[in-house]
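WARN no homologs supplied; continuing
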Amino acid sequence: MRGAKPERALEEALAERVAAGASDVLLAAVSGGPDSVALAALLARHAEGRGARVVLAHVNHGLRSSAGRDEAVVLALGTTLRLRVVTRALAPGAASEARLRTARYAVLASIARSVGARRILTAHHAGDQAETVLLALFRGTGPAGLAGIAPVRPMAGGLTLERPLLAVPKADLIAYCAARALPYALDPSNDDTAYRRNAVRAALAGLRQTFPRLDAAVARCAALVRDEEAGNPRALLRRTLREEVEGAAGDLRDVTFERIEAVARAVERRRPGRHHLRPGVEVTLRRTP
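OK structure emitted
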């Protein structure tokens, strides 16, 4: 997050995406890593100002010798943030990623029902999104795969799974933990490149030296694909703007998304003004009667 107060900017961004109501109970999935610790703290601050309630859920997979340490970190975090913590252990079984993911979400849904929550929030961030999109690309997937992780997904029983940090780089979450003096644990299995996701993560670590905004850019591209697939009105407006401007000014591939998005927002809000797209190309919006 850029700016003089990046922590405040992150808190405001989460507040905009979550927008909890006074009666909401938000269940935060917390592994003990920096991403989910930051999510818990952000939600706690957001809920406090809105009269909502946050409950932390920790699912112990029981696969690592450090699993007990992770649970202890989450329990300590609950004490620090003055939030209730519910812990559950997965039943023994195959250690495949697919089985563990399915079992984990089933347990989270069970905890949500037990505490009266209808919203389950996870700390998937821009780095996770970049990995997911690239894995889909390597599999030769279509637009659905390139849309990446959905920010909101309905679950059985009227629950929703929400990922409010998908546009946030991991570095910002680690920085938030440091700024708020929040403890967290590191998962050593993340370094095992035998897992395809970890192999992609290791490769991206090198690319980020050259492309520091890589994760945010890929996350934004995934969001654009989702908008296009869903026929989102904003996506249709962006496409119309590009087509009209390209008809008069030529190829706009070197124009950033932010500039086109600014014009789209101005059109939606009927705000007159001039928008610079690139040298020699401007869009002028006039006030309509």
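The first helix runs from residue 6 to 18.
OK
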